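Standup notes, structure subgroup. Blocker cleared on the NAP input:
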Amino acid sequence: MWTIVAALSAYNRGIGLKGRLPWRIPMELRLFRQETWGGVLIVGRRTWESLARPLPGRELWVLSRQRLGPQAGVRFFPGEQALLQALEKETRPVFFAGGEQLYRWALSLPQVQELRLSWVYTPAEADTFFPAFSEAEWQVYATEFFDACSPYPSFVRAFYKRIP
Ligand SMILES: NC(=O)c1ccc[n+]([C@@H]2O[C@H](COP(=O)([O-])OP(=O)(O)OC[C@H]3O[C@@H](n4cnc5c(N)ncnc54)[C@H](OP(=O)(O)O)[C@@H]3O)[C@@H](O)[C@H]2O)c1
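Run returned:
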């Protein structure tokens, strides 16, 4: 199963600011860790730079036209085709995990059948955004509300399936 996973501001769809997340919400990070554990995480080079280290329990695949690596726990791909070819042989769950450029490409892939979005209730300043997507193509099949726990904002996890 190929899934897009993102946290975005419910006010402006912001996802990042100056190479980082616009917020720090420990509960949301915990859910991300739990749900992606054992899978392959695909990120763009800028997101890789903000992580700056492999993530435990998951293999990180990084898309970049630059020559990067090698690094234990991380695979680098120079382009979309090389990455898609490697994915054909992949049996672990696959998560497209940002940033904006990576999400734009992932949303166009028919193999991506699920979105897991955390809508964060804070008007965060942002310079990168989750792309607008068509509600005619995606249907919400589950939601879960996480109440604000001071000083962290509330968020809603929404799970979407691609409408065939
Ligand atoms: N809120 C969230 O859930 C979330 C999740 C992840 C990231 N973020 C945030 O998103 C922001 C980064 O997003 P971004 O859009 O600026 O960058 P990004 O998508 O992380 O990375 C963009 C880079 O990926 C590489 N790339 C993208 N498409 C490619 C292709 N077709 N072929 C080869 N390489 C390709 C390029 O690297 P080269 O320039 O090296 O070629 C490009 O500059 C950060 O602030 C980060 O914290 C937020």
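Discussed briefly. Residues 26-36 form the longest helix (11 residues).
Next: hand off to the docking folks.
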